[in-house]
């Protein structure tokens, strides 16, 4: 589809966003497009294709509009491991201990860290308001909101950002009426692979970038959602058509990866 858009003249490389979930898959996409474009004689510079993971694309735009974010130049991105160590480093000033338990819930510091990171990422990726949490009748949610705000404050003070906040900051940029036209620029087409592995904030980002033309194409399989433990929601792909009045669906039913006999044996096993 990408090469069709380019060769037919419907879009230039810089007018296309092409994204998938993992770094490995993104590199594979780039290699395939490069190889096939040479075979087809397409000679334009593909370097300007906006291609990569959603996190990479968010990061590239944040760098351009850094002065409109809480971050400063040279910010450091925390991965899953360094996010744990970050919370460990500032644990005492972020997490209160009540009656011998952290947030009235956990006795072990490492258990608290592991569980809190999951909560923090969920609050960020689901765009949950800490104000709403503070108004809850549950003490744990009130304390959680305070912890989250302290964590976020320390993140930005040390010029660091986790993966979830990378998306949240970009989400805030594209919802700024002054900045959005500059980000949207000449983007005409958006294509997303492994859409079943996207989360709520990623869906909101992609739908916002796609409008108003809505030239967006997603590919996915609701039976292959691998990242639900990291906030992915299969709802995104199941409910995708409701966002558009003229959404075309194409079911991919031919398996090109396995021999017919393997598929038959597999189907018989599952059905039994």
Can you put this structure into words, describing what you see?
The protein is of the alpha/beta class and 272 residues long. Helix content is 49%, strand content 10%. It is built from 13 helices and eight strands. Strand 7, helix 11 (200-210) and strand 8 form a beta-alpha-beta unit. Helix 9 (163-174) runs parallel beside helix 11 (200-210). The longest helix is centred in the middle third of the chain and has 19 residues, at 139-157. The mean pLDDT is 92.
Topology:
Layout: H1 2-7, E1 16-20, H2 23-39, E2 50-53, H3 54-64, E3 76-78, H4 80-89, H5 91-94, E4 97-98, E5 101-102, H6 109-125, H7 130-134, H8 139-157, E6 160-162, H9 163-174, H10 180-184, E7 189-192, H11 200-210, E8 216-218, H12 235-238, H13 260-271
Parallel strand pairs: 1-2, 1-7, 3-6, 7-8
Antiparallel strand pairs: 4-5
Helix pairs in contact: 3-9, 4-6, 6-9, 9-11
């Amino acid at each position: 589809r990408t090469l069709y858009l380019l060769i037919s003249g419907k879009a230039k490389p810089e007018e296309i966003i092409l994204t998938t979930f993992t770094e490995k898959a993104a590199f594979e996409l780039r290699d395939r497009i490069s190889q096939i474009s040479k075979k087809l004689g397409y000679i334009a510079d593909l370097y300007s294709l906006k291609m990569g993971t959603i996190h990479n694309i968010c990061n590239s735009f944040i760098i351009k509009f850094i002065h409109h974010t809480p971050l400063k130049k040279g910010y450091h991105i925390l991965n899953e491991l360094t996010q744990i160590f970050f919370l460990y480093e500032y644990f005492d000033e972020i997490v209160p201990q009540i009656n011998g338990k952290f947030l009235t819930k956990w006795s072990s510091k490492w258990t608290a860290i592991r569980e809190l990171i999951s909560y923090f990422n969920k609050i960020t990726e689901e765009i949950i308001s800490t104000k709403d949490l503070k108004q809850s009748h549950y003490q744990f949610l009130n304390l959680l909101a305070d912890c989250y705000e302290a964590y976020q404050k320390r993140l930005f003070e040390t010029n660091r950002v986790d993966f979830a906040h990378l998306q949240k900051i970009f989400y805030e940029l594209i919802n700024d009426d002054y900045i959005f036209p500059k980000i949207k620029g000449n983007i005409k087409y958006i294509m997303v692979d492994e859409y079943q592995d996207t989360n709520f904030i990623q869906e909101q980002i992609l739908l916002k970038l796609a409008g108003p033309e809505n030239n967006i194409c997603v590919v996915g399989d609701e039976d292959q959602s691998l990242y639900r433990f990291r906030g992915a929601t299969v709802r995104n792909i199941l409910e995708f058509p409701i966002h558009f009045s003229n959404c075309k669906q194409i079911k991919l039913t031919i398996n090109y990866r396995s021999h017919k006999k393997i598929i038959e044996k597999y189907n018989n096993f599952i059905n039994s």
